[in-house]
Amino acid sequence: MNAMNAMNQQLAGYAPTPVTARMENHGRAMLKVAMQSGQDLFARTGSMVAYEGFVQYEPNPPAVRQMASQWLTGEGAPLMKCTGDGLLYLADYGADVVCVNLNNDALSVNGTNLLAFDAHLQWGVERVKGMAKFAGQGLFNVQVSGTGWVAITSRGTPIVVDCGRGEDETYVDPDALVAWSPNLKVKGKRSFKASSMIGRGSGEAYQMAFSGQGIVVVQPSEDSTDRLRTRG
């Protein structure tokens, strides 16, 4: 019994913490969601690692099937609908988790970085304007808007760049891009010389240039789907 108590004390720091918000981090790489009846959740299929209470899952619900035709190879984010009461824990292969509480706001997220969001939020797959000539068929993101919670993932600790601090544009490797404010202006930039500095591809390099008032979330590890070059 003494040995059991000693072990429990050693593991106490990893125990679930009291609920303080609809979504919050448990450590850097796990998301804790306080589930309640009538407050459904969309989450990445396969992201559930544990749950307490009564939680049910519906893979590929009708709302997702309606959007399915718009997903492109490398951009798909298969979703499940989660309902019930309890605590739900989600993760994505050890990636960092960032919780965002939207207040009548919007966020455009790379589909591969979208972990979960409140089902009552408005959402849809949208083509990124100004990128079609660089990306073949174009670049698609998931735009989430309204008032509620969104959880995104990042391969490592992300940096959030405030694009409203001056007139200069912010340039980002599209394979390292996680999310951005939809009201930002976006355009593509092609450069041979930048290929050795931005990204790891050889030959012609592409960057996304952001301007206006808003934020851009960038991860320190490039997305393996190679978002632009697979469509070129």
UniProtKB/TrEMBL annotation:
Lineage: Bacteria, Bacillati, Actinomycetota, Actinomycetes, Kitasatosporales
Species for this entry: Streptomyces lavendulae subsp. lavendulae
InterPro entries: AIM24, AIM24_sf, Trp_RNA-bd_attenuator-like_dom
Name this polypeptide is given: Uncharacterized protein
